[in-house]
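B., you asked whether I could sanity-check this one before it goes into the benchmark set. Here's the sequence:
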Amino acid sequence: MDWTIQGVIELGCWIAHFPWRWPTGHDAEDCIDAHLDCNIRHLVWELGRSVLTYHSDLPGATCAGFMSEELSGSAQRRAVDQMYRERCQLRAALTYGRERGCTVYGRLCMNRHYSPGSRHRSQFAQNNPQLLEHFRDGRLDVTRLCYAEPAYRRERVEILLEAARIGCEGLCLDFCRQPPAVRYHPTFVNQWREGTGIDPRGLTLSADREGFLDWCRFRAQSVAALLAELKAELDPLRERYDREIPVQVRIPNDGLEANLICGFAVEDWCREGLIDEIALSELRWLRQYQEWDDTPYIALGNEHGIPVYAGNNCLPVQSGGWGGECNPRGVNPWAMARRALTAHEQRAAGVSVYQTDLGVQWPGQVEALASLSDPDRLRAWVESHDVQQRYPVTDENRLFGIDNHSPQPDHMVDVDEL
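And here's what the prediction gave me:
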């Protein structure tokens, strides 16, 4: 069985978490070398979220490091901006990765646009308020744009196609940042009401389960449309460059029904050939869905010939916010390795490890990460009494490896309030 460890990298965090790494001029190479030292050769490199973290030639693109003439903010912020401005780190990673025998994908966070005034918000998001999603009660969701609108789908597709042209060997569409992908934009609501005579804002899972899920299937068509549009334009590039350029989707593993509620018709994606790989993340966020199980996804992948990568994470749960620091008491390398071993036992294609940019620098995590690529070595490390004694499981670290964006149980989202 093929077994691949994918390191999901955010280069800004590579230096932001460790000030002594502030720009060296060869940050991408340093980061890749650290991954190779941990036997990680499949790299999932950041393309950005709302703001892009590579030097884009797309008209109107907002790129990190170029949002003002002068670098400003904290010393940490200035260092990150300087790194992004001084050269295209994506192109550097692709060049050096090829030299070192790595596979480098490009990863785009698909619907995370932050609030007006944020330095992480693109001009596209700021200048197109008509594309903003709506909450059930009609309020604007200023952090998300609506996939029902062709202009937004086009903006996302153009970024992904540019990454493929630059040389990314695959594309990761990260839908874990941040679900749900779809809400109640008037385009959705009006089309549904015209077709059914029902206002979908009155449908809830608890009161009308089938009606609500039908509504979810309807609005999920917009995300499928984005994938279809990407495939239609990616296929000619695949032929021209004689490269596969697989499309990977990163989604929560809280079940196919929960995915549908988020806007992800995963079974349709597989059946229609819209995706080539699935990467999972144990994101705990919906109150009604408390099962996190990779096996249905692995079975679905086997049915359609799609590799499925289990989730893992180098960051502990954020506990309500992210201030640029990690809680060391929430880290347990043994728990991380045990999750990976379980994935191998379940016959996943491998593991997608989020923010290895931090893990390959963290004592203990380095040792765990280095064991993941060899299942025999991994099993020996997990079963070692000395390792278990070194990393005792506590209430604070027992869930290490789940998605760091998972809220505390009392802050989970109720589906009826989505």
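One thing to flag: The CA atoms of residues 248 and 277 lie 4 Å apart. Otherwise nothing jumped out at me.
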